[in-house]
Amino acid sequence: MIRACRFRRSKLRISLGEGDAETGLDSREGRPILPAHGVGIGCEGVRGVRERHAGWIDGREAVALAVFAGVALLLSWAMWADIRPAPVYALQASHADSPAVFVTRLMSVEMRLRRVQGAERIRVPVWTDETRRPLEISLMRPGEDEPLARVRVAAAGLASIDIPESIAPGEVVSLRFTSESDSRETSPRVLWAESPPRAGVRTFYAGRPIAEHGVLPDTGPLILVEYAWPTRRLALLWLLPIFGLPLVLRTPRAGLWWLVALALAASVTSALLWQRDYTRSAVHLDTDQYAESATALARYATEPDARETIRAWLRAHPHTTTLGVPALLAVPVALGVPVQIAYMHLCALAGFLTLLILHRLLHRDLHVDAGLAWLVVGAFACHPMLLRSFSRPITDIVGLLLVVMTLVMLVRRLSRVDVRADIGLGLLLLAHVLARPQGLGYWPFVALAVVAADFIRTRERPTLVSTLHRGLRLFGPPGLVLVLLTLQFGWLHNFELMLEKAGRFRVNSTLPIFLTSLVGCLHWLPLLWWPARARLRDPRVALWAVWGVYVIALLVVVRAPYWPRHFLPALPSVFVLTGLGLDALQGRRRRLGVSLLIVSALFGLAITLWQVHSMGALPGWLAGLVRSP
Question: Please, are residues 494 and 320 in contact by the beta-carbon 8 Å criterion?
């Protein structure tokens, strides 16, 4: 019988349960191979081992976090200074069912607008085919007949016309749409906007102001303005983690600084994608108005005369019950930091910590090879769902960090629990509800996981009294705080508004959207889970697997919109199981599995960078996998 072995300068005490079991050492890093049942492990000899694993980050990781925070703040400031101007129309839908007008020889369209600083070209969604006459788009000064620029469009798509440098910023320019067609049957069509344009834009149809026609909406042709974008070159930061990956695989100790480069590249890409989405549709500037909420809270603290107005606005805001992130942002905003900079920086920090904690879990808790763990974390960072949220001013990434922290605390509960652990878990439960609308839906999972973890740790069958006592200790304080906040601020009214708003998006709760979003979440990574099936008997692994199933089931039960971003909380489970599956492979099979993981990462990165680069819409078969409001 083996009584002790050496493992990373710690002596392991191995006690065998019923029957004997074979125990040996893995050639990789000399870590022990243990049977699935009947083995208890306790660390002796190095007192700091347990304390080190109990903390969230160590000294080197704290230094890396500080470096990342400083550089990310500078990048956020630079990107905010180069933010895209607001689009001409707040709603810029350009699908096949969008309203459109026919352009004939006698029924031309003219649009007059001022050139904004940095505007380089105008793009126009056009519908035509080979049976129709081409559409001519001209750019000229009002009252002149000679165009400064002209393009001829003979195929459907996103037409483009460059703005000449001779047109100064602030100068009024005329955009004309004409054709040689004499009838609607042979005329091209220009898509028509569904929302009013910004001030200073005038539209004429057949020489008359559009308001005089009475048939068409008083809006105008749908145009997309493209601007100079110097900060888009920051996407080249991806060269650092890409070319640094071989070094990390050979020298895992360099992985921490590789993670800093990876997170900076992901942060920049996420912000660029947000700016591109905002150029397409103004609603992306401040999704769910959390930035406006942060500004309102900051004004509430610094402007006493505006408090009544702010109270009225908060009462009419559907997301007032989830102002956890705006409350954090209100402090720097009150000190004079622009809200979008503070928002992007907070999300970037949450993204970095999510990657760091996930690597610690894979390598230190689940004993995945260090280099392989870094590779899995890199693929996780390249997933389109995570890239969209990494530093985007939206609360998704903060909610993801809370999810990962909660699951790590539940994993630790399998081996030990104390008062600090209960307090920390209670604070996380409260933070979930205040950060995200679905946060309360996580409470049942945590309750069941706590009961199961305590049973596995103590081997004592839970009684009704012990279960109630445990539940009151964990859920009582956060529940009481929520009740007091609801009564104090009248949140039941806001909760009703939130449910009413959610009801408007039930049209996105269909089976086809669910399946495409699920595929967009999983890719082909479930093919790599099978080798790790034996490790599902490990409660730490089973916890992550069950969590992924629970989150997806929760979306179905509450009939949430099946947008890809709503599957984000399940993403860590996908990559934890992937990392364990790869770690169980050897030789050629491992190389094949790693290749599949790298292809998944490159696909996610490529499709995200393509969205940043291109002004056009994604192909229909691909849009459902990555597109989120």
Answer: yes
Q: Running DSSP on this structure, what letter comes out for residue 538?
A: S
Residue 93: pLDDT band by 50, 70, 90 thresholds?
A: low
Q: What is the mean pLDDT of residues 454-479?
A: 86
Mean pLDDT for the chain?
Answer: 85
- pLDDT tens digit string along 153-164? 888 888 899 999
| Phi-psi group of 199: left, alpha or beta (phi > 0 → left; psi -120 to 50 → alpha; rest → beta) | beta
| Predicted confidence band of residue 464 (pLDDT cuts 50, 70, 90) | confident
Structure tokens at 246: 């071989």
User: pLDDT band at residue 605, thresholds of 50, 70 and 90?
Assistant: very high
| Pair 69, 349: CB distance under 8 Å | yes
Q: Report which DSSP code applies to 362.
A: I
E strands, 117-181, where? 119-127, 135-140, 149-153, 157-162, 172-178
Please give the structure tokens belonging to residue 221: 């042709």
Tokens of 566: 């709503």
Amino acid at 593: G
Distance CA 531, CA 435 (A): 36
Distance in angstroms (rounded) separating the CA atoms of residues 341 and 367: 38
Both tokens assigned to 97: 């069912």
What does the pLDDT look like over 408-424, one tens digit per residue?
Answer: 999 999 888 888 888 99
Distance of alpha carbon 220 from alpha carbon 204, whole angstroms: 8
DSSP assignment of 428-481: HHHHHHHH-GGGGGGHHHHHHHHHHHHHHHH--PPPHHHHHHHHHHHHHHHHHH
Query: What is the number of residues in the chain?
Result: 629
Supply 471's token pair.
């539940």
